[in-house]
């Protein structure tokens, strides 16, 4: 037994020893693997490869964002020259990688300073390129660095951080690519650097044979398998030598890669050809704005953009002349002395400062683009109907990010087409289809448009009453500018973001007008027409973003009548602090406003006041999170953004139903005019864009517009209109319904005639013949009913259309780095293939070739009109010579 026990003991020890050796060997191999993988991250080659990929990814974004402005032949012929600046940048970095790695060349302190500087340069380049690429991934558009100041407040920072996940993804992809390609990119750049350094070596030594090439000093080094710790410090291609250094001995590279001479010749020949091609293309490339702009390396784009001076807008028509009689009106300005308003009180009224300061002011009578329809009869459906309509209160409901084709959702629409396409042959699931059928019942009630294609109209469906406009465009695709157009009846300022609050709003806004009416003597009127107006603005989103609150005060809303997120969560909130979580980076859902809506109408009735209330919805803003614990329904396969957007549109529809219920319960539904208007749409259906930033697509322009009142007959208008027309329409409607006292009616008439827009309760005129300002005997000229949309953020593009040709759209750039665009919505409703060029004359030539002479002449006229309008816009806002 003793012998057996010893035998078993020895065997066990031996077995444990074997197991230990196996474990140790595996642990060593695992350690070697970790060190090997890790060493490929902790070296200069990885850093250089990361920067290379970041620069080239950013450059591809830059080119891709403007690709439509290039013809295929131009891209094939000159495309390689676009990367010249990027190659120079990367070669300079490659030289720096070698230069500061030379042992003993500098003192330690100097090397340390240089290393810090080098690291800062690398970090700056990487950060700029990563942000540039990430922004494109998130929004589908190129970032414009002059706009980064918008992230200065809390809401702006939250907006910026919404792309954090995409940023991490971009960095991860770049890291993986750099890990895989580091050797190839480092050596390739070294080869090019060798070739470029030949003249320097020849000049200093006079002997080309002394050149040590990148391939020669990148010799193969065998790493001992049992010494990974040391091996990790010896790279596959040794790269610690200086560029163009003499070989130490003829046998220094005895273990070169097989057939190195042949491969070396191939690599150096290809690199030489690439360099010569770049030099030749850059030398002979024609001077063209598009080609020059495409060539900027992304690192320089912030400086290129910031070099443009602030101030007024400029439209460059190239060599096109406008000195003939047909365009002589372009020297006219609509700014003159103020029109007579004898009813203004002696004490200054806010919004009417020009009348008290003897300043120049907009005068519709001399506006060469003004078309008035106030001398026309009312719409046929309104004749004899308006005297039965009482308008004691007016309520604006501005629908955040709401496209026309989701108000209501219809089966035959671009939205439904995209959703159906996403499901493929399997078809849309019943759950999604049922959700879409019931998504917007309130919108159907408001618009009176029950024929959605999902189900037949039944006799029990009755519209609320009002005028629904099917072809309304916003004045701007940026919310704050759009609000200015709606509430003030003006064209927004052609400048980035909200500068309106710091400049001269060139017409009185609706709150200003109502305050002025409050000062009038209403005579013997003993009904609501003699009551004073109270203006208020309410939303559940913040007013701190981009000076939103300051703009509302400039528009005329009293400070104590502004209700926003900060007020609602504050301790002084009238109905207690709100503790709801945010649904987006601006605020929470709208339901806490119910108490405030009820309060303002009930208190106004008790105080014999009239209410003008403006409300902006917010739940339908990106990133489209459903309030509470409600789960969104998947409406499109692989289309998460569009599905979430439509789900929030459905939530907003239910909110609008609550608003109508509140008006009913407060007893004011039959005496309140409701204006439903989208601030802007979204182009996600057309091109996948989740924002309107630098995206002029028609999906961001086309919005809902409804004048709703239970006593108005249901009317649908298909003519082209603009949200600029809402304010004069309200004045006209108040007069025609007898909702103002005689003195207030006269004041409203005077003002309505002096606004740019036509009244929407009368037939909209598509054109008018006006007397020419040319020499005597010159025939009258015909002016079109032009609509202008200032594209988000405001300074770069103006969307233009003309009611005479409602399907033609022109996008006019007001900066050199933005393209001209023309599209025909009849042929291309999604604007998938617009004509786009950086030069105006080039666009005219392409339009003439593809759409004919008439379209080309219209483009020329539209461009001339827009150039005058843009310059006039700066004058009216007193912005042309002021700092932005």
Distance between the termini: 100 Å
**Order of strands across the main sheet:** 6-5-7-3-8-9-4-10
CATH superfamily of the largest domain: Alkaline Phosphatase, subunit A
Q: How many structural domains can be distinguished in the coordinates?
A: 3
CATH class of the largest domain: Alpha Beta
Mean residue pLDDT = 84
**What ranges have pLDDT less than 50 throughout 5 or more consecutive residues?**
207-258
Number of DSSP-assigned strands: 17
Number of helices: 27
CATH topology of the largest domain: Alkaline Phosphatase, subunit A
CA gyration radius, whole angstroms: 34 Å
The proportion of residues in beta strands is 5-15%
Shape: globular
What structural category arises from helix and sheet content?
A: alpha/beta
Estimate percent helicity: 40-55%
Q: Biggest β-sheet: count, sense, barrel?
A: 8 strands, mixed
What is the name of the CATH architecture of the largest domain? 3-Layer(aba) Sandwich
Transmembrane segments: 46-65, 77-97, 117-138, 158-179, 185-203, 265-281
Pfam family, one: Sulfatase
InterPro entries: Alkaline_phosphatase_core_sf, GAG_Ulvan_Degrading_Sulfatases, Sulfatase_N
Domain Sulfatase N-terminal: 462-734
Short characterization:
This is Sulfatase N-terminal domain-containing protein. It contains 27 helices and 17 strands.
């Amino acid at each position: 037994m003793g012998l057996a026990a010893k035998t078993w003991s020895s065997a066990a020890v031996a077995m444990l020893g074997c197991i230990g050796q196996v474990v140790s060997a595996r642990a060593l191999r695992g350690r070697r693997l970790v060190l090997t993988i890790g060493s490929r991250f902790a070296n200069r080659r990885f850093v250089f490869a990361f920067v290379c990929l970041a620069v080239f990814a950013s450059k591809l974004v830059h080119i891709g964002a403007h690709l439509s402005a290039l013809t295929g032949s131009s891209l094939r012929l000159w495309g390689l020259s676009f990367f010249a600046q990027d190659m120079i940048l990367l070669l300079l970095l490659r030289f720096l990688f070698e230069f500061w790695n030379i042992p003993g060349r500098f003192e330690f302190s100097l090397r340390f300073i240089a290393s810090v500087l080098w690291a800062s340069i690398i970090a700056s380049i990487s950060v700029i390129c990563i942000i540039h690429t990430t922004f494109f991934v998130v929004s589908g558009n190129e970032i414009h660095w002059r706009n980064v100041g918008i992230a200065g407040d809390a809401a702006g920072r939250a907006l910026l951080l919404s792309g954090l996940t995409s940023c991490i993804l971009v960095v991860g992809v770049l890291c993986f690519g750099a890990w895989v390609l580091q050797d190839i990119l480092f050596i390739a750049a070294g080869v090019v650097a060798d070739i470029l350094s030949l003249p320097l070596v020849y000049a200093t030594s006079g002997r080309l044979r002394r050149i040590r090439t990148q391939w020669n000093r990148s010799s193969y080094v065998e790493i001992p398998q049992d010494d990974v710790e040391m091996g990790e410090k010896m790279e596959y291609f040794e790269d610690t030598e200086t560029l163009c250094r003499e070989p130490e001995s003829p046998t220094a590279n005895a273990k070169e890669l097989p057939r190195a001479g042949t491969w070396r010749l191939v690599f150096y020949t290809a690199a030489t050809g690439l360099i010569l091609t770049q030099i030749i293309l850059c030398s002979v490339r024609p001077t063209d704005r598009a080609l020059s702009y495409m060539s900027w390396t992304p690192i320089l784009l912030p400086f290129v953009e910031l070099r443009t001076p602030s101030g007024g807008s400029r439209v460059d028509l190239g060599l096109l002349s406008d000195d003939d009689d047909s365009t002589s009106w372009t020297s006219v300005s609509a700014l003159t002395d103020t029109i007579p308003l004898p009813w203004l009180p002696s004490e200054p009224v806010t919004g009417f400062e020009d009348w008290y300061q003897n300043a120049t002011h907009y005068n519709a009578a001399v506006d060469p683009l003004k078309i008035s329809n106030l001398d026309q009869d009312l719409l046929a459906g309104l004749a004899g109907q308006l005297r039965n309509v009482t308008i004691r209160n007016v309520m604006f409901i501005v629908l955040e990010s709401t496209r026309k084709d989701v108000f209501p959702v219809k089966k035959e629409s671009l939205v439904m087409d995209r959703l159906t396409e996403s499901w493929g042959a399997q078809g849309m699931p019943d759950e999604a289809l049922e959700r879409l059928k019931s998504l917007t019942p309130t919108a159907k009630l408001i618009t009176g448009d029950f024929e959605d294609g999902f189900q037949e109209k039944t006799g029990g469906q009755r519209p609320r009453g009002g005028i629904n406009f099917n072809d309304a465009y916003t004045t701007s695709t940026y919310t704050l500018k759009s609000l200015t157009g709606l509430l003030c009846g003006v064209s927004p300022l052609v400048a980035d973001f909200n500068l309106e609050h710091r400049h001269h709003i060139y017409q009185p806004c609706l709150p200003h007008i109502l305050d002025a009416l409050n000062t009038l003597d209403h005579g013997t009127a003993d009904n609501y027409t003699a009551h004073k107006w109270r203006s208020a603005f309410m939303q559940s989103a913040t007013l701190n973003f981009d000076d939103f609150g300051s703009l509302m005060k400039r528009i005329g809303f009293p400070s104590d009548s502004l209700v926003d997120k900060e007020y609602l969560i504050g301790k002084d909130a009238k109905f207690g602090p709100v503790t709801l979580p945010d649904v987006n980076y601006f605020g929470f859902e709208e339901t806490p406003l119910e108490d405030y809506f009820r309060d303002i109408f009930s208190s106004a009735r008790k105080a014999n006041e009239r209410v003008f209330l403006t409300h902006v919805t917010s739940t339908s803003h990106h990133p489209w999170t459903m309030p509470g614990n409600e789960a969104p329904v998947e409406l499109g396969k692989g289309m998460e953004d569009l599905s979430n957007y439509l789900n929030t549109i459905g939530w907003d529809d239910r909110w609008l139903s609550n608003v109508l219920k509140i008006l009913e319960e407060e007893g004011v539904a039959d005496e309140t005019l409701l204006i439903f208007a989208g601030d802007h749409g979204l182009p996600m259906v057309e091109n996948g864009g989740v924002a309107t930033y630098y995206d002029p697509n028609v999906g961001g322009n086309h919005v809902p517009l409804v004048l709703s009142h239970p006593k108005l007959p249901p009317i649908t208008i298909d003519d082209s209109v603009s949200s600029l027309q809402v304010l004069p329409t309200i004045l006209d409607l108040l007069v025609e319904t007898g909702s103002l006292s005689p003195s207030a009616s006269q004041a409203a008439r005077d003002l309505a005639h002096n606004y740019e827009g036509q009244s929407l309760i009368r037939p909209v005129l598509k054109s008018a013949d006006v007397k020419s300002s040319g020499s005597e005997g010159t025939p009258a000229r015909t002016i079109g009913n032009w609509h202008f949309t200032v594209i988000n953020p405001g300074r770069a593009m103006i969307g233009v259309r003309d009611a005479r040709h409602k399907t033609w759209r022109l996008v006019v750039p007001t900066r050199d780095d933005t393209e001209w665009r023309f599209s025909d919505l009849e042929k291309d409703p999604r604007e998938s293939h617009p004509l786009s060029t950086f030069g105006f004359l080039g666009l005219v030539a392409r339009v003439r070739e593809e759409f004919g002479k008439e379209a080309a002449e219209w483009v020329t006229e539209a461009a001339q009109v827009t150039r005058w309008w843009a310059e006039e816009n700066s004058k009216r806002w007193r912005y042309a010579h002021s700092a932005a």
